[in-house]
Amino acid sequence: MIPRIVPTPIAALELPTQPATPRRVAASVLGAVLPGPGRDKLAGGEVLAVTTGQQPGLFTGPLYTIYKALSVIALARRLERDRGVRVVPVFWVAGDDHDFAEANHATFLNTGGDLARIVLRERPAEAPLLPLARERGGDEIRAALEQLKAGTPDTEFKTDVLRWLETAYRPEATLADACAEALNALLGSQGLAVFRAHDRGAKQAAAPWVLRGLDHTLADGYTPVFVEAAQGRDRLEPNGDAYRTRRSGERFTRADLAGVAREAPERLSPNVLLRPVIEAALLPTVAYAGGPAELKYLPEAAPLYQSLGVAPQAPVPRWSGVMVEGRVEKLMERHRLDLTAFAGQPGELEARLVRDELPPEAVATLTTLRQGIEEQYGRLLESVTKIDPTLERTVQSARNAALSGAQAIEKKLIASLKRLEGETLVRQIARARAVVYPEGQPQERVLTLASFLIRYGPGLLDALAREVARWADAP
User: Fold this and answer.
1) Full domain range(s) for residue 421
2) Strand-by-strand arrangement of the 87-93 sheet
3) Would you say 269 and 131 are in contact if contact means Cβ atoms under 8 Å apart?
4) Which residues does residue 235 pair with via DSSP β-bridges, in sequence order?
5) pLDDT for the residue numbered 306
């Protein structure tokens, strides 16, 4: 049975209202798009695009990567209907990104319903910060796939899911290319155009805009441009009549960087503020679907759009949601919980629910006892202080001791319940939390899609697509 899908909106969806002129996409840009219906549509003449993007991740990374892709598919259909022009959903695979610690792992639910984590490998602290477009899966990718295979239940869908990942995540493939291929295999048939921003043709097309970004200095004193230097991908800061890298301290003149753009354009890349500007320059983008952090920082790119003379695309929120499995649903119904109950500190919910299991007569008696202690000691205190005010603290201490005794009885009752039946309840809550709020974070930011597909099959992806289409009011 497919899990219940609960939308968790980031913000109200407001579609772009500004006019946008369809245009053709350059051949160099088209060459960076993986084959499929989306690429064919981009190549078919004048179009608009709805875009999103994400750094590559192991086994497509967290769920929100898929939600971004489904969001632009639905938004493109909606805008195509509303505007009467062809609109293409584009996913920008940010292979320039160098944050290996964010891309080297995948978290999934194992056979027992517990959290499990696969780590491809660690990057040594002293190693250059290579873009993910140059980090290959290596021999470790086989072990990672085997760990996923061994850790998930055997279902009728498992073979197909593993084949999907094995086809993309090969030892010789980079993490950027593997993620792009996996997304294309998963959603290319739905019209998603998967754009490899690290493709040489795309880098050549972007290079003039990246070089123009050198003329803009951000609030932190650096330009929005990276160059791959001795210590890997490195920010450039103005340094007299040239530029210097932040970590390695290498110096590049403007002519040096122009030479890099001609000979090795893959060494130049934009930061997170310049990237959407370049995206709007290369693609006829009408809207960008982003998450909470992106929606906050994208407005900061406004001066860059003006400086480079590029019309900005409208930022819109992507779809967000939680998949609630049947066993979690039953636990929530039995204890009258909502999803927010799992967001607290581990142990808080467990203690409350075990306390709720106390016999009603014991709870009532303890409540009456505490009220009686407060009331009777209050009367005693009033009488005593009239006779000898110095005895006030003695009476208060006796009252606190009596209350402490009642509390100790309650704690021992709860401990006895935990021994008798609480272990099962605690275990159920821990597993439920692993599904809906793993590691204290929203589900979509931690768990990968693969283990859900192994459990529920392609019908789950269809259900998610329908939910996202409903959100966008897409045909």
Assistant:
1) 345-436
2) 193-196, 87-93, 48-54, 285-290, 314-317
3) yes
4) 226
5) 95
Return the pLDDT at 420.
Answer: 46
Does this model's pTM top 0.70? My answer is yes
- Are 148 and 453 in contact by the 8 Å Cβ rule? The answer is no
Distance between CA atoms of residues 290 and 372, nearest Å: 57
Q: What is the 3-state secondary structure (H, E, C) of 70-139?
A: HHHHHHHHHHHHHHCCCEEEEEEECCCCCCHHHHCEEEEECCCCCEEEEECCCCCCCCCECCHHHCECCC
Q: Is residue 49 part of a domain?
A: yes
Cβ-contact 304, 213 below 8 angstroms:
yes
Q: Are residues 446 and 431 in the same domain?
A: no
Q: Please say if the pLDDT value at position 46 is more than 70.
A: yes
Higher pLDDT among residues 398 and 139, named by residue: 139
Our count of domains for the chain comes to 2
Give strand ranges (E) for 309-441.
Answer: 314-317, 321-324
Shared domain for 447 and 425, answered yes or no, is no
Quote the mean pLDDT of the chain: 91
Report the alpha-carbon distance of residue 377 to residue 36 in Å, rounded: 80
Instruction: Give me 426's structure tokens.
Output: 């605690």
Give the span between the Cα atoms of 459 and 468, in whole angstroms: 14
